[in-house]
Amino acid sequence: MMSSVRQASVEGAGDLCTAGDSVYALSLGNGTTNATVAVLDISGGKTRVKQAQRFD
Asked: What whole-number distance in Å separates Cα of residue 25 and Cα of residue 16?
């Protein structure tokens, strides 16, 4: 199962996408910060979320 959410704001947009036991979160940055993608492992449930990878 895969789902996604997009949130627009003044500074840019953020995207969330889930696939299996992973959440992919995109932050586009705001001109002074870099864009970042974080991959979260949610296989342990809502109280055991771990950051698996981060790309800047």
From this structure: 5
CA distance 41 to 49: 6
- Domain range spanning residue 46? 2-55
Task: Tell me how far CA of residue 1 lies from CA of 17, 18, 47, 49, in angstroms.
Answer: 10, 8, 21, 19
Residue with tokens 């990878």: 53
Give the whole-angstrom CA distance, residue 35 versus residue 37.
Answer: 7
- Condensed to tens digits (0 to 9), the pLDDT of residues 1-56 reads 455 555 555 455 578 888 999 999 888 887 888 889 999 999 999 899 999 999 88
Q: How many domains does the chain have?
A: 1
Cα separation, 38 vs 47, whole angstroms: 18
